[in-house]
């Protein structure tokens, strides 16, 4: 579970970093296992429901979060209402969150929600994904589960374009207490998507 700092938050059980949940689970290991179980079901559901008319917009992102984790959290699908930081990184301030989100998705809409990359060079697709993923990482719209839902979001986009899910295996390996994906996320906070681009490019493979 992420170690976040909030201006004000009531989503955790008192004196813990365990989010209050509908199953009243207080054991972090059990809770994380339940999150993994729900995420797998989310992948299956949204993959099955991908269609020509699917629009990868803000409503879709919030829907991913809500549908996947609503059985566990009351805040599923809802944008946070507290400022949030992790380490030295401060994510988008709440007062700018809605307008920043709309700006990101308006720009994504002008890119046709990245629905035109099935026959374009892989490096161009990876660059676009890295840019928008970085934007959403910096936005950090939800209280919890941002990284997993953002990866789910872009995995649906890659699948739509005839690719496998992005393979983050090497990037998520823990080395010296950290991993490349975390470093890429930190780089995103200073508008540097180069590290993330390399991870995505390496992890993009066309479906057979």
Topology:
Blueprint (H helix, E strand, L loop, with lengths): L4 E2 L21 H21 L9 H12 L14 E3 L2 E2 L3 H17 L11 H18 L6 H15 L19 H9 L5 H10 L5
Antiparallel strand pairs: 1-2, 2-3
Helix pairs in contact: 1-2, 1-5, 2-5, 3-4, 4-5, 4-7, 6-7
Description:
With 208 residues, the protein is mostly helical. The chain has one domain: Fic-like fold (Orthogonal Bundle). The protein is built from 7 helices and 3 strands; from the N terminus they run βααββααααα. Helix 1 crosses helix 2. The longest helix is centred in the first third of the chain and has 21 residues. It is globular, with a radius of gyration of 17 Å. The mean pLDDT is 93.
Brief summary of the model shown:
This protein has helices at 28-48, 58-69, 94-110, 122-139, 146-160, 180-188, 194-203, and strands at residues 5-6, 84-86, 89-90. It has 208 residues and is mostly helical. Strand 2 and strand 3 form a beta hairpin.
Question: What key phrases describe this protein's structure?
Answer:
mainly alpha, 3-stranded antiparallel β-sheet, Fic-like fold, 3% strand, single chain, 208 residues
Number of strands: 3
Just name the CATH architecture: Orthogonal Bundle
Biggest β-sheet: count, sense, barrel? Answer: 3 strands, antiparallel
Q: How much helix, percentage-wise, in residues?
A: 40-55%
CATH homologous superfamily identity: Fido-like domain
- The CATH topology assignment is Fic-like fold
Rg, alpha carbons: 17 Å
Total number of helical segments? Answer: 7
Shape: globular
Overall mean pLDDT: 93
Beta fraction: under 5%
Adjacency order of strands in the biggest sheet: 1-2-3
Order of helices and strands: EHHEEHHHHH
Spatial gap, N to C terminus: 35 Å
CATH class: Mainly Alpha
pLDDT < 50 stretches? none
Briefly note the structural class of the backbone.
Answer: mainly alpha
Counted up, domains total: 1
């Amino acid at each position: 579970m992420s170690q976040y700092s909030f201006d004000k938050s009531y989503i955790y059980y008192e004196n813990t970093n365990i989010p209050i949940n509908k199953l009243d689970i207080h054991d972090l290991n059990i809770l994380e296992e339940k999150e993994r179980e729900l995420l797998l079901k989310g992948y299956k559901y949204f993959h099955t429901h991908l269609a020509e008319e699917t629009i990868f917009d803000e409503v879709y992102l919030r829907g991913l979060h809500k549908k996947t984790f609503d059985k566990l959290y009351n805040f599923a699908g809802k944008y946070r209402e507290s400022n949030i930081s992790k380490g030295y990184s401060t994510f988008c301030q709440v007062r700018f969150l809605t307008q920043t989100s709309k700006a990101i998705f308006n720009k994504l809409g002008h890119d046709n929600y990245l629905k035109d990359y099935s026959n374009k060079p892989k490096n161009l697709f990876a660059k676009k994904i890295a840019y928008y993923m970085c934007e959403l990482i910096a936005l950090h719209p939800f209280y919890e589960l941002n990284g997993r839902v953002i990866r789910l979001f872009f995995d649906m986009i890659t699948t739509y374009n005839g690719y496998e899910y992005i393979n983050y295996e090497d990037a998520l390996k823990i080395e010296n207490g950290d991993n490349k994906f975390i470093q890429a996320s930190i780089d995103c906070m200073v508008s540097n998507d180069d590290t993330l681009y390399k991870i995505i490019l390496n992890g993009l493979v066309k479906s057979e």
